[in-house]
Amino acid sequence: xxxxxxxxxxxxxxxxxxxxxxxxxxxxxxxxxxxxxxxxxxxxxxxxxxxxxxxxxxxxxxxxxxxxxxxxxxxxxxxxxxxxxxxxxxxxxxxxxxxxxxxxxxxxxxxxxxxxxxxxxxxxxxxxxxxxxxxxxxxxxxxxxxxxxxxxxxxxxxxxxxxxxxxxxxxxxxxxxxxxxxxxxxxxxxxxxxxxxxxxxxxxxxxxxxxxxxxxxxxxxxxxxxxxxxxx
Length: 232
Description:
alpha+beta; about 15% strand
């Protein structure tokens, strides 16, 4: 019953207040280096962040009706599939034409406008968010941080990461979906400098995103979330 509330419900004000006290801002500084001069891996970076086992908190008494939750889960999953395939297709085209440098430029110029166009087309607000961000516009809000911390906890416990529905302000329901590093191409921009990421390509990344922290990932790592907000 608790797990059902976890997926279909919202977390109490108490959990949010506790979360805000324990979470530190991770979006404004570049990734630290070790004494040997190499960058920390994303696994090391994320391991130093606080996690949140939401099963230890009580859910609010306001629970979505099952038919409403099922409908939103179905719609959210379909929209994530559309968004992911659209971004992936255009990104792979950029890599084919201009290699990794072209993909970096594409993400810098076109990725967010494309997501905005998907928002208008489907009458929902789309966003990608992460704990270790590259584009500052992908920094999570308070609730998105809560969800990311939940997924981080579950990933460290080797649990299946499932979509989450949560109520927001003004009769808004948010659908959250984990983003994992699943393709080798992802590591060309989010892997390790000098190993997966060409040094020259990373210099281009740093010129566009001076405070970039979105490197050091391995295949299978949690990269971030899709955040889709539905308005009644």
